[in-house]
Structure formats: C-alpha cells, structure tokens
Give the backbone structure.
Amino acid sequence: MTYETFQPVDAAVVPRFAGLPTFMRLPYVPSAAGLDIALVGIPWDGGTTNRAGARHGPREIRNQSTLMRRVHHVSGLAPFSLARIADVGDVSVNPIDLKDTLARIEAGIAEIMGHGAVPLIAGGDHLTTLPVLRALARREPVGMIHFDAHSDTNDTYFGDNRYTHGTPFRRAIEEGVLEPRRVVQIGIRGSIYDPGEHDWARGQGIRVIYIEEFLDRGPVQVMAEARSIVGAGPTYVSFDIDSIDPSMAPGTGTPEIGGFSTREAQQMVRLIDGVRIVGADVVEVAPPFDVGGMTALAGATMMFELTCLIAKQVAAAREASAQS
C-alpha cells in the first residue's frame, strides 16, 4: 500500500460537511495492517466521577477534524505523505462493565501494535489511558509527557474503588507499566482534596509542573526539561483537554480555570519533536458541555499536531533503515 492509498478527502472536491466522518477525512480501514499510524477512538467514560459525556468525544472529534488540512503551516510537514495513516474505528467497549472494558481496550490497542502501527487515540475519559499503557508495556515500560489540570495519581474514590479517571497513573506505576522517573506532568492546577495530594506522585519521582511554574518559565524552558526527563526511551504523550483553559475548551468533565491557551498547547506539543513517541492520546472531550464544537476542535487540532510529530518520526526511521 502506498501513501496515496491513505489520503484525506479533498475539501475542494467534497465539502467538509459531506461524506462519512473519519479522523481528518482519512480512509476508514478495519485493521491497522499496513499502517504506520492508526487513529482510533475509545468511546467510553465509565471512570468519570462527575460530569459524564467523554464517551461522545471520538465522534465529535472526528466531525471537527474535517477542518484539518494536509500540511502543517509552521513546520511544512505533510504527514499523510510521510506515513501511512488511517482511521481504524473504535475499540470495543462495554458501557456497563468497567473491568471488561479495560480488558477490551488493552486487547484492541495490542492488536494495533501487533501490526507495527503507532496508536493515536481519541478518548474517552482518562482511565482509558491505563489499558493503553498496559498494552504498550508488553514490550517495555514507558515514560510519559502528560498535559493535564490534574495529576490523576489519586488512590481510591467512593470507598475502595481504585479505577476512576483520577487514578490511572497511580495504577500504571504500581503495575510497572509506567516509569515514574520518566514522567512529567504539565499544567497541574486547581483545588485539591488534601494538602498532600501530590506527595505520592512526587515521591515516586514524577516531575509535577504546576501552571504557575509554567507561566513563570514559559513553554520553551518547560518543554526542554520535559524532553530531558523522558530522554531517549519510549514515551507516551497524554493530552487531557482540561489542561486548556475552559474559556477555550469548556466541553470537559472537570474544568479548571487558569489553564493553557490553545496557542500555548500547540507550541508545547510541537516542542515534543525528537522524543521517541510510541503512542499518544487526547482525552476528556465531552461534547454535551461544549460550545459550538470549540473543545472538540481543540482536541482534533492537538491530534493533528501529534500526527505530524509521529509521521516525521516514522519517516526518519524509514530513511535510517534504508541507509543501514
């Protein structure tokens, strides 16, 4: 299969509002076989503790991603000509069984990886990242660059419930699928349950960068540190849309004022360039709380930014392999 097989529908031929909605108007294929990057949805929010709705995120991100074009206006990258990319649909979920869904997600992502494709995921709430990390760690534990208003390293909710969208990275570290000293969390803010809420995360070696530090230092310095923390090892990128200020991304389950601007978010993702990305996600887009699709558009744009980075990485690896 050639790159021409996996090209977006031309908006000058078929208008953006017409045709079947897929991520970035790319072809839908039922399998990741032959792909370099698999765009996939996880329409599930069974880990949500307050405002549900992220289960509808993948569908609306697909709708808004029709606004993505072929070339990145800053880097000049044309990702769909650098890598074989397609929409592989949604992984199987069970809306009434949390643990069954976690197993289904892990199996679905493992299948994508078995074909050699990098999964780029639209969630779903943030608990969906835990089974993704489990699938990735079948090869080796990963580091993580994590954009979020919340650390998501709490222990339990509502008694002894250990699996919510506020606990995925605590579980991931306990299970050995995430290397805590190769994890950086950027944009953390908002009121917390307890003065020591982030002590466990810091005690594990996670670098927690609160929004105030980010504002003092700026994107360039912060992302230089982030790249140094994850180093050359395999790295997952997780982008919670609530890292963006709710004035620009209101459609999310747990909004926190004082977040990134969309422009800052784009700049930071671009500054991940050079990191060895083995998977990525954009989570917590909740369309029922959105205004005019602006949150889903922000999510689609972050996915396009990540697509460009991963496609560049794929092309570089292919060139290096050809020269060896």
The chain has a mean pLDDT of 96.
